[in-house]
DNA sequence: TGCTTTACCTACAAAGAAGTATGTAAAATG
DNA sequence: CATTTTACATACTTCTTTGTAGGTAAAGCA
């Protein structure tokens, strides 16, 4: 059986990657990162607005994925020092660039829906 | 807290999906499906050839992901009734279509490598 | 007849991602 | 001064994915 572990292609933040695709998935993979990025495509949103924009997300996932997206430089977190302290999240240039990729995944999904004759309400 | 579970957007093979992107990830997501698809882009390969083409994959993952890709119609499995029984895997038209998407993910990864100044050997 | 090759296949364990439930601080509001 | 709202934060559990470590069947070869 295959137990060989060869040389990694590259490292990022202590993790080993064998292909650029694996790296991409660290930035936009998982259930919630892409929905968050898509929600921000028209401009900055507050925490509560994101929660409304993404119907099924829990606080835990929203907050942890926002932190993850911040750490990788996909979104910016801006605190406005107003009377009710206000926080807004927006896409960085890198985040905006990822929209093309996410759109490609979205279009393939729509193609699948047609091809596989999956019923979509509305 | 958010315990609301609303209406699903659509169903496929008993699973619930809220966006076309989620559906796409069922077809090409996970660690190994995209490397397998990329390995087949130049033409059909046998099981053993795929194993050589994808250095770090185990038998378990190669075989289970080949089955998954077959089930979703991304690849075809052809058995040649020759003296040493021979099996070849190749992309279906749907599998070929996914190459565009995978390429988009690949290019974004390369962009990240440049942007984040990640060292890549060779 | 025993050994090798090809193409699988499975039980079990470990690791990682996501969900459940609950808590908190600071300011506005009644 | 008690209550509500906003924006988080964490402990714990469950679910899913991946890895480890084996095994098998069929045919050809020595």
TrEMBL record, chains A, B:
Organism: Chryseolinea serpens
Name listed for the protein in its UniProt record: Transcriptional regulator, HxlR family
Upper lineage: Bacteria, Pseudomonadati, Bacteroidota, Cytophagia, Cytophagales
Domain HTH hxlR-type intervals: 19-117
GO molecular function: DNA binding
Record Pfam families: HxlR
Signal peptide start-end: none
Key word ATP-binding present: no
Keyword Transcription regulation: yes
InterPro entries attached to this UniProt entry: HTH_HxlR, WH-like_DNA-bd_sf, WH_DNA-bd_sf
Keywords: DNA-binding, Transcription, Transcription regulation
PROSITE patterns, sorted: HTH_HXLR
